[in-house]
Amino acid sequence: MKKRILIVDDDIKTLKILKKYLEDEYDVVIENAGYRFVKKMGSYDADLILLDIEMPVVNGLQAFDELLRNPEVKDTPVVFLSGVSNPNLVRELTAKGAAGCIVKNIPKEELIAQLTKVFGDAEKRASVIEILILDDDIAHLRSMRDTLLTNDYKVKVVRCTFDAVEYIKTHHPNMFIIGRDQSGLAPREVYDSIASTIRSEGVVSLLMEDTFFTSELVDLVKRALDNNTRGI
Fold first, then answer.
1. Predicted TM-score (pTM) of this structure
2. Which CATH number fits domain 4-127: 3.40.50.1820, 3.40.50.2300, 2.40.100.10, 3.20.20.70?
3. CA 38, CA 60: separation in Å to the nearest integer?
């Protein structure tokens, strides 16, 4: 099945050119108004969005801000369309989470090559396993974080249960390693207090009843993920 690309631009000529460039490789959907895109953004079912910066009523930057707040589409790669090449703008947009920025008069071959790279990068990011760690001991957090980072995991550390819950709901990590909360709650108490959230988000959990040594931590994480258990 072809990947779907949504092109959002108020310039009909640009829409037609880019659609023609891409329709042999992709399923292409077009939208010529930023405000309609914002209103309907969850319904396009796009795998990638080409988003014009300069549009009336709602411009591309405003639309992108709305997209980042929408859980249905916030992880969809967005490549901005610009009338001119601007390296500073590219850096600004990528810092905000955009997958790139291209000029509208880009040759067909270069356009397809850049989008192929964006899709490849997105697939790599999706394959990375993310682990959230809760513990009130900073040195312990750093040790576990560094161990997991060197084993190619993506890691987020927090020190209180509230922050953990917020992160689980917004980022959906693959695993949650539960240590002692900053308020004094033991790992089992932390788990029991937020078990419904952990289960509803499908997060594999691992209770840190004892200090994990480096090799033991990696083995326990791999075993829990392979078995898709909650480690309790």
1. 0.60
2. 3.40.50.2300
3. 10
